[in-house]
Write a structure and sequence with these properties.
The structure is a single chain. By secondary structure, the protein is of the alpha/beta class. It is built from 10 helices and 8 strands. α4 runs parallel beside α5. It is globular, with a radius of gyration of 18 Å. The two termini are 28 Å apart.
């Protein structure tokens, strides 16, 4: 088991009626915690980092750590660029050895989104990397700086988009949003069902933080094979660090390191159990 391509993970997930967790990381502790959970549950995962996170977590530093962790893992792990915004960043990730890349052209009009996504697919083919694109508008923004209005993906447009671009996986907008939800999200499962009937490639759900376990499994039943977890991962690390400093000292980096790893480990483990679609939800802590 080692680093692998995301396409194979999604194909296996489809055969087993489950989804693969794609967990965002921003430092060494997050990588260690995610891999620890995956190995304990003997479940492949995706380690990912979004372009908007690179000012805090530079790709030239994070990329090699993610790749090394995947190569040394006891389970298969894909290393993914999430929400690539420029062709330059996509190329940088591929040059580092990432095995999948997402180009987010949702802010462009449809023809330009199609053309840019086709360029990314062509670039990725040179290394065999898996490609992901987004259609429609997932609410919020990856770094919480914007509050984009949700525009659901049109099933007919999704079918055409997948055919014209040749992309391997498609992120859809069905009422999901990045960041923290201000109210319980109401996912348009009817839209998802229609997309799934028309699109042959695996579907991706972004904005996983705050979606109920029941809705996760509903989405899996309608073709979602990759689920992104970002905000919940960062929250889990922050909360454990906060709890560490709530106790009386003395404090030290090494104990703080262990607390941050544990926070991410617990969050990733819980989501993997939900996404594996095997254990009854009332048995998952």
């Amino acid at each position: 088991m080692s680093m692998c391509y995301m396409k194979g993970l999604l194909e296996d997930a489809a055969k087993e009626s489950r989804a693969v967790g794609a967990f965002s990381v921003g430092n060494m502790e997050m990588i260690i915690g995610a891999v620890k959970a995956a190995e304990e549950l003997n479940t492949p995962i995706i380690l990912q980092i979004a372009e908007v996170r690179l000012p805090h977590s530079p790709l030239n530093l994070m990329g090699p750590m993610m790749i090394k962790a995947a190569k040394c893992s006891k389970v298969d792990i894909a290393v993914h660029l999430d929400h690539g915004l420029t062709l330059e960043t996509v190329k940088q990730a591929l040059d580092l050895g990432f095995t999948s890349v997402m180009f987010d052209g949702s802010r462009y009009d449809l023809p330009e989104n199609i053309e840019l996504t086709r360029q990314v697919v062509k670039i990725a083919e040179k290394t065999g990397a898996t490609t992901e694109a987004e259609l429609g508008v997932v609410g919020g923004s990856e770094d919480g700086s914007e509050n984009c209005k949700i525009i659901c993906t049109d099933p007919a447009v999704a079918e055409s988009f997948a055919e014209k671009t040749g992309v391997d996986a498609l992120a859809v907008a069905i009422g999901n949003a990045h960041g923290h939800y201000v109210a319980v999200p109401k996912l348009r499962l009817d839209v998802l069902e229609k997309i799934n009937k028309r699109v042959e490639i695996p579907l991706v759900l972004h904005g996983g933080t705050g979606i109920s376990p029941e809705d996760f499994r509903n989405c899996i039943s309608y073709g979602v094979r990759k689920i992104n977890i970002a905000t919940a991962n960062f929250d889990a690390l922050t909360d454990e660090a906060y709890n560490y400093f709530k106790h009386d000292g003395p404090y030290n980096y090494f104990s703080l390191n262990e607390a941050m790893v544990q926070g991410v480990y617990q969050n990733v483990k819980r989501h993997i159990q939900i996404f594996n679609n095997q254990i009854p939800l009332n048995q998952i802590l």
